[in-house]
Write a structure and sequence with these properties.
The chain is α/β, with parallel strands linked by helices. The protein is 40% helix and 17% strand. It has a single domain, classed as Alanine racemase (TIM Barrel). The chain has 9 helices and 8 strands. It is globular. The chain binds pyridoxal-5'-phosphate. GO terms for molecular function: pyridoxal phosphate binding.
């Protein structure tokens, strides 16, 4: 199948998940994760109507952004961000999905020339292999970010464990939703926290059912070339 067909299929799945939960599918944004595909394939995705592109490596993001500079795209950095690399990417991103430590916040604050929309990454399942804050530390962390006027906490991000166990995945996503509500209750100006970045190729339907507003889909949308 081509990207257009993949996209139609995914949009249908989003629609069904939303209907199940009585929410509007307008609130769900599809990010095409292009880390496994070429610049040309990424262009194809944008021409098929994709508005959001996600990359987990700086070189990939910069190369694709240059190649697609004639097209309107929102750029999402979704990978682990090394503090010393912030300066290379900060001017080129619309969203950072992986804010998980104050040293990174310090560097973003130091380098930013405009407000940066950030997701705080949460390691809900506390897997050693994944980055992100444990749930118990998130509220205090978000509170500390009030001193960083270049950082806007637009939402929370997580990755579910890679497992067949649907109830475990669902539990991770609903925990992130609960945490979002807890943060929203505090009505912090710097942290509206209206967004939830969760769901990938294998689990985006569950994520949408549990309240995702940005899903990050690679393989099942644009395929895998390398
Ligand atoms: C690679 C990646 C994705 C997309 O993964 P697929 O399984 O190919 O859809 C989503 N989020 C992050 C953070 C990733 O690194």
């Amino acid at each position: 199948m081509g990207i257009k067909e993949n996209k139609e299929y995914i949009l249908n799945e989003i629609q069904s998940a939303c209907e199940k939960k009585n929410r509007s599918s307008k609130g769900v944004n599809l990010i095409a994760v292009t880390k496994y595909v070429s610049n040309e394939t990424t262009r194809e995705a944008v021409l098929a109507g994709i508005e959001h592109i996600g990359e987990n490596r700086i070189e990939g993001l910069l190369s694709k952004k240059e190649y697609l500079k004639d097209l309107p795209v929102k750029w999402h950095f979704i990978g682990t961000l090394q503090t010393r690399k912030v300066k290379d990417v900060i001017e080129h991103v619309d969203y950072i999905h992986s804010l998980d430590r104050l040293s990174l916040a310090n560097e973003i604050q130091k380098r930013a020339v405009k407000t940066i929309s950030c997701f705080v990454q949460v390691n809900v399942a506390e897997e050693d292999s994944k980055h992100g804050l444990p749930v118990k530390d998130v509220v205090a962390f978000v509170d500390k970010l009030k001193d960083y006027d270049s950082i806007k906490v637009v939402g929370l991000m997580t990755m579910a464990p890679f497992t067949e166990d649907e109830s475990l995945i669902r539990n991770v996503f609903s925990t992130l939703k609960q945490l979002q509500l807890e943060i929203q209750k505090q009505k912090m100006v710097h942290a509206p926290c209206t967004e939830l970045s969760m769901g990938m190729s294998n689990d985006y339907s569950i994520a949408v059912e549990e309240g995702a507003t940005f899903i990050r889909v690679g393989t099942s949308l644009v395929g895998k070339e390398f």
